[in-house]
Every structure is written in C-alpha cells, then in structure tokens.
Specification:
11-stranded antiparallel β-sheet, single chain, 14% strand, alpha+beta, 4-stranded antiparallel β-sheet, 45% helix
C-alpha cells in the first residue's frame, strides 16, 4: 500500500516560485503557441523535437492539456482521466461532502467509474486551434478618436466574431483574447466538456498539508493533487452529467515518469496562466501598492476571521465556508507578500528609473519626441483620475460580490429598468420567457442569505465608506447619515436591509416582484432608493473607468512600441488565460545570507513538521507506513529520501495551478 501511495507523492510534486528570489530563467516569459517555434528549446535542454510539443498540423503534447475551471489539468489516460491540484477541486469536494460523509476532510477514492462523483458546475476547455484576427478588429476603429467609442466597437466586433465562430452543436466555444493591448487579437477555439467527475482526492491533511502557514513558501510538503475524469455524450458532444455519458478520449495523454528528477534538470510547463501586467508603467504599480493590494488584503483577512468565528461550533457551516475561506486566505497571503515584495525590492522606484531612461531616449530623437514625448505625462493625467476613484471602485467591487442581499437588490433594479425596453432588447434573464425563473432565483438567494455574515459585512462596509477621500465618497451612505449620528443610523439601516431576507416580510422582495416595474422605480422605500442611488453612482464610475481604460489602452500600446525600439527586442505578451509554455530548471535558491534551500523536499520533512500539530497533522496510516520503512521503488538516493515536492525557476502566475511539469522527454513529473 505504501508503495502505491509513495508513487502518488513523487509523481504529483508541487512547485513554488519566488518573485525576485529565484535564479533568473534562461529567457523570461510565458510563451503563446505562436512563439514556441521561436524558442531554442533544444539548446535549453529539451530532448525531443519541439514539434512534439505543438504541431498545428498534427497531434502534440498540448492536446493533453485541459483548462479545468480556473486551473489547468492534463490527461493521463485514454479514458479521460486527468490530474490537477487538490486546491483546484477543493470547492467541488466541499459541495459533495456532508458532515457525515466528509470527502474534503477524509479524502475520496472511487473504486470504479460508477462511484465517481459529479463535480457539479465544473466545465473543461481544450484548445482546438487559434487564428489572428487583429486586422479585422483594428480595421473597425480606424480614424475613431473617442476612446469609449473605440472600446465599444472593439467589444462589439469581438462578440460578433465569437458568435460567428462558436459551434455549440459540435461543442465548440470561441474566445478572442487580446495579446498586446490595442494591437494584437487572437481567436481561440475550445472544445467544451460539461461532465467532470471526482475520482480521487487525498485527505485534506495531505492535500492541504501545512495550510496557509506553508502556502506561497518553501520548503513545502503538501500532496496538492486530485484526479478527475471527463465525460461526453455517446456521440462525443458536450453533455451535462448523465449515466449514459462515456469517458472522453483525448487526442493525447501524458506519460508519467515516476523516477523523479535531479537538480538542474530541464523542465517545461504547459498551462493556462491568468493575467500578468509586466508591461504596465510605474503608476500601475503605485495603484497596486497604495490601493488595491492593501484594501483587499485587510478586507479578506477580516472576512476570514468573521467566518471562522461564526462557524467555530458548527461543522456544517465550517464545510460551507471552507472553499471561501481557502480562496480568501490564498489571495490574502499572496497580496501580503506582494506588498512586502514591492517595498523590499523598490519595484516602483526601479520602474520609475527605467522610465526616466526611456524618456531620455525619446527626447534624443525628434521623430520619437513628436510621437511619444508626452507619453508619461499623459499616463500621469489618466492615473490621477484612477487614483481619485480607487477607494469607491474597490468598495463597489466587493459589495456586489460578497453580499448576496445586494446581488439580489441589484438584479431587482436591473429587472425594473430592463422591463421598460422591448422584449428582444432586454438581457436574456429578464425576457418574458425567462423572467419568472429569474424572479424565483432572486427569492431563493434572498431567503437563503447568510444573515449573520451579511449583518457584519454590511456594517463593516458602510462604516468603511465614511473614511474615504472626498473623490471616492459613497453618496448613498453620506445621504443616510447627513442629519444624524452614523453610529446609530447605519446599524439601524442595515437591520432594515436585513428584513428583506424574511420571506414573511410584506414590504420586502416578494412585494416588489409582483409590482409593475415602473412602480419599483418610483418607490419611496428607503432600501429601494438606497440601492438606486448606489447603482447610479456605480454607473458613473463605470463610465469613468471605461474612459480611463480606453485612454490607457492607447498609451500602453505606445509604451510597448517605444520600449521595444529602445530595447531593440520584441516582448512576450502578458499572460491572459490562454495556453502558454514556460521553461527552466530544477533549482534551489538562497533567500538570505548563509541560507541555501535545496529544490526537493522529502517525506521525512512531512513527518518532522507533523509534530507541530494543527495544520501539520497527518493521517496515522502515513506515519505507520513511514516508520515501517516500506519505501518501495521510490527512495531517491541522491536526496536520501522519498521526494514530495520540487522547486524550479520557471516563469509562473496564478491560473498555472494544476499545470503539468514535464521533463526533457515530455514526461509528466509534477
């Protein structure tokens, strides 16, 4: 048994990357498919023909890749078995669990296909092809100066292309991705899979070993892996869960190499990394450092503490909150680290120094000065407006994301406004054939709202708004307290809002859902007036954001142009959730004077950490097997132990979770 278990630990190893701490990769970047042919991977250490990775006229390793929700996975069998990270399946394991049958805590193994559990709501996408549609899109905005109009036309043309090229009957969805802002647009075609099932997950004490204490750090010892299986209808088309469905047969699946790796081995990664912003100016870093990162970090930390306190004595509530807490904690620690990294590495100062050098280069050539001379002052002007509204924008983004009550109230007002339009001009959810279903969903959400959490959330957010700068004031909040004491008025108003969650409330949601839409808009109910005022200000902020975004798109494109001239090189486009390749080597690193970390951790480290207890507890069986010294064929003499996690210096970002780590022969090693 230990032999089988150890093989999982070594095969599904985990990486951690360190911004600013790692030895630099041979070349920086997460390369899109179109750029793979321009990289000398053989010189870097690849032992197979690069065409075996991506072959536009045949089958390659990328055909084994699959986008699993917001993560990446890879097929490892001809019957649709795929592997990804445990944390990528966390919410689906939680949803399938009960306090009595807790797969999240205890793990899960389907003895056969009939026992596999549906991962409800999870969809997979497999890249089928790509096509450059830049000329078509850019031709639609030729000669148009108004930035909002430009963005509107681009969005409309992108939607038109996607509508033309999508083929739901054959399970094909398309998406146009902007590669370089305002310059390059690529149409990707994806094969959809809508029936995904859980096959195996380790106990949480292994899949999340070390918890947040070990997240984003090295040494790391978690067994962060999960197996799933993709299913399709008998005719091969995408279909929702059905007993009639059959395992998907991928064009390619990865061969697993269970022999492990050695230090300095060449590795490469294929995956769907989320967005990066490496080509943004110093003002963007200022926005992150002064506004977004600290606001989100502190707010998420507060929400985690609230949920932990509310669920302390309630196992069912703990299970309900678990995915949200994990997601919040992951981001909170990430943002905390980014704040520290920006400060320690003086990234803003370094970026500003680079921009001063670039400005000097621009000034040195009359033709460049004419086109780019005001680039950085223009960026300052736009960002001044962005900074002015930063607090309000961040506040709105969290209110309408975290409060189920306000999600419903915003839908109510959207319904009232949409109903004033002809049926075919309304959003689909508010058209005559679907509006009753939408109303039922609104009632369900409002009735099931977590009142205890909502009360604390709304009070926190309303009082936070009182401290915003003048340019970011929340007008609806200021209106409520203009003639009284906020300490009394705001909690009372929150209670008035919470009354809407009571289905017996005659003046709540049920009343307004049977009203004529025009009557809702004319209502003098303070909650209706409050949400209406909030939405009006939000609409104004969106207009200003769209204007700033349009201006920045033009300026960013200019920045890339002139920087490319200055550096005399082309740049790899920022990651944008499309398929990418990155490569490097298995390497340790030195984070401080006289401190050196090796690139592999072992099962011995798991056992040693387990004595700390808490998030480092392990199943008794693992300890028993370890001390039984049944290491099977997985003992590695080079590191004197059984490998668990590996570290490498490839480029990476969020969204890369679950991406296969491949050796020089294209075999899966992590």
């Amino acid at each position: 048994m230990f032999k089988k278990y150890a093989s999982i630990l070594i095969i599904i190893s985990i990486s951690v990357s360190f911004f600013g701490m790692m030895s630099s990769s041979p070349e920086e970047g997460m390369y899109p498919l179109s750029e793979i042919q321009n990289i000398d991977l053989v010189k870097a250490g690849l032992k197979i023909d690069p065409a075996e990775i991506y072959n536009p006229d045949g089958i390659g390793l990328i055909d084994a890749l699959v986008k699993v929700g917001g993560c990446t996975g890879s097929f490892v069998s001809e019957e649709g078995l795929l592997v990804t990270n445990h944390h990528c399946a966390f919410s689906y394991l939680s949803a399938a669990s009960t306090p009595e049958e807790n797969y999240l805590e205890n793990g899960f193994l389907a003895a056969n296909k009939m026992e596999e559990i549906p991962a409800n709501g999870l969809t997979c996408r497999i890249t089928e092809s790509y096509e450059d549609v830049s000329d078509r899109i850019l031709s639609t905005i030729s000669g148009i100066e108004d930035v909002i109009e430009r963005n509107k036309i681009i969005s409309e043309e992108i939607k038109k292309i996607e509508d033309e090229t999508s083929d739901p009957k054959n399970s094909i969805e398309t998406e146009v991705a902007e590669m370089f802002i305002g310059k390059t647009y690529i149409l990707f075609k994806y094969r959809m899979i809508k029936d995904v099932r859980l096959v195996y997950a380790p106990p949480r004490s292994i899949g999340e070993f070390g918890g947040e204490g070990d997240n984003w750090v090295w040494p790391r010892h978690s067994g962060d892996f999960t197996f799933m299986r993709a299913y399709v209808a008998p005719d091969g088309s995408a279909a929702q869960y059905s007993l009639e469905n059959v395992p998907y047969r991928p064009k390619k699946f990865l061969k697993v190499n269970s022999k492990g790796v050695g230090e300095n081995d060449f590795v490469f990664i294929l995956g769907y990394p989320a967005r990066t912003y490496r080509h943004r100016p110093s003002q963007y870093l200022e926005y992150q450092y002064d506004y977004q990162l600290p606001y989100i970090q502190y707010f998420y930390r507060w929400m985690i503490d609230v949920m932990n306190n509310l669920s302390a004595d309630d196992p069912a509530l703990q299970l309900k909150y678990a995915p949200t807490i994990k997601s919040l904690a992951n981001t909170e620690k990430n943002y905390r680290g980014k704040i520290e990294g920006i400060r320690k590495l003086d990234l803003i100062g370094k970026k500003q120094s680079e921009e001063e050098e670039l400005q000097a280069y621009i000034e040195s050539k009359p033709e460049l000065k004419e086109r780019y001379g005001s680039l950085f002052t223009d960026l300052d002007k736009v960002y001044e407006n962005v900074f002015d509204q930063a607090e309000a924008n961040l506040w709105y983004s969290q209110l309408f994301r975290r409060s189920e009550i306000f999600i419903v109230l915003s839908h109510l007002m959207e319904y009232a406004h949409a109903s004033q339009k002809p049926n075919d001009e309304r959003p689909p959810a508010f058209r005559d054939d679907r509006v009753d279903k939408t109303k039922s969903r609104m009632v369900e959400l409002m009735t099931n709202a977590d009142v205890a959490f909502e009360e604390m959330l709304l009070n926190r957010m309303f009082f936070d708004a009182l401290n915003f700068y003048e340019t970011s004031r929340i007008k609806a909040i200021d209106e409520i307290i203009k003639e009284g004491d906020a300490d009394e008025i705001l909690p009372e108003f929150v209670s008035l809002i919470l009354d809407w969650t009571d289905p017996a409330n005659e003046n709540g949601l049920a009343k307004y859902l049977i009203m004529e839409p025009a009557e809702i808009l004319d209502s003098e109910d303070p909650v209706i007036q409050f949400i209406d005022q909030l939405l009006k200000q939000q609409a104004y902020l969106r207009y200003e954001d769209n204007k700033s975004e349009g201006q920045l798109d033009i300026l960013y494109a200019k920045l890339i142009e002139v920087k490319s001239m200055w550096k005399n090189q082309n740049f790899v486009p920022d990651a944008n959730r499309t398929l990418r390749l990155t490569y490097g080597y298995v390497r340790g690193y030195s984070p401080a004077d006289a401190v050196n970390y090796s690139p592999m951790t072992t099962l011995a480290g798991v056992i040693e950490k387990s004595y700390r207890g808490g998030e480092y507890e392990i199943p008794d069986k693992l300890r028993e097997l370890y001390f039984g010294e049944e290491s099977g064929n997985y003992y590695n003499r080079m590191i004197n132990g059984i490998p668990v996690n590996i570290l490498y210096n490839t480029d990476t970002s969020g969204g890369s979770s679950g991406s296969p780590v491949l050796n020089a022969y294209g075999e899966l090693i992590g």
